[in-house]
Design goal:
Layout: E1 8-10, E2 16-18, H1 20-43, H2 45-49, H3 56-64, H4 68-88, E3 92-94, E4 103-105, H5 108-131, H6 141-149, E5 153-158, E6 161-166, H7 172-186, E7 199-202, E8 205-208, E9 211-214, H8 225-237
Helix pairs in contact: 1-4
């Protein structure tokens, strides 16, 4: 939500803006109204509402206040004059009519970032709609997708196109979800932007028998000879099993 750029430029002279002269009248009116209310409180509603019939109580009250009533009438006149002036002042004027030039922020960069955010959100939602078919826990779906996007991997260019390989997660359920998502992504036959090179995704695993094993573990220290032989035996007993990620 931060500004990408602080560059500014002159505003369009035909743009309508709030009239600052009218806006400056509002605090003046409010100030005089507060003064008027204070005077009324000092004089008392009873004395002010009493008719001017020469009664001693009202007459004596006005003399005792030493011109407070006159000040009150002057404030009422000032308020009426300011309100009439405000009514004659337009609420909006053009930028060209302002006393001082106005500058505005150049938001082109912000607009670009906003569009990128919208595209990223749409892409995330599109992936979530497909990942949900391969992962049973809907509450962790968004967290899983974020974890998958942070997986290490590689991108290689070959004669067949661009090969994107992600390192498979350690959790079996996450590996199955990634494999299912990758299989679905590959059915769309996407191409790299700006080229006609097809993009193929892999999860860095191979399927031996009923087991999905990360490719680098086939030759790593964690893969013993007995384990490898057992997986190969499972593969021989299940000839229909194959590599789901198009590796040789």
């Amino acid at each position: 939500d931060q500004l990408v750029s602080y560059a500014a430029g002159p505003a369009d002279p035909d743009t309508q803006v709030a009239n600052p002269k009218r806006r400056r009248l509002d605090p003046d009116i409010a100030t005089r109204r507060r003064q008027l209310a204070k005077l009324k409180a000092e004089l008392g509603d009873v004395g002010l509402d009493e008719p001017r019939d020469g009664s001693r109580s009202a007459h004596g009250l006005k003399i005792a206040q030493q011109g407070a009533v006159k000040q009150l009438r002057d404030l009422e006149d000032d308020i009426d004059r300011l309100i009439a002036r405000r009514k004659q002042t337009p609420t909006h004027i053009t930028v060209a009519e302002l006393d001082e030039p106005r500058h505005i922020m150049r938001l082109e960069h912000t607009h670009i970032v906003d569009r990128i955010r919208i595209c990223a959100y749409n892409a995330e939602q599109w992936l979530l709609d497909r990942l949900v078919d391969h992962y049973p826990n809907r509450h962790d779906l968004r967290d899983l997708l974020r974890a998958l996007t942070r997986l290490p991997g590689s991108m290689d260019t070959t004669d067949a196109g661009i090969q994107v390989t992600l390192e498979a997660p350690d959790t079996p359920a996450h590996r199955r979800a990634l494999a299912g998502l990758i299989d679905e992504l590959n059915t769309h036959h996407v191409v790299y932007p700006g080229t006609d090179l097809p993009v193929t995704y892999h999860d860095g695993t191979v399927v031996i028998g009923e087991h999905r094993v990360q490719r680098d573990r086939l030759s790593g220290p964690r893969m013993t000879d007995q384990r490898r032989e057992r997986l190969n035996d499972d593969g021989a007993q299940n000839p229909s099993s194959g590599c789901r990620c198009n590796h040789p």
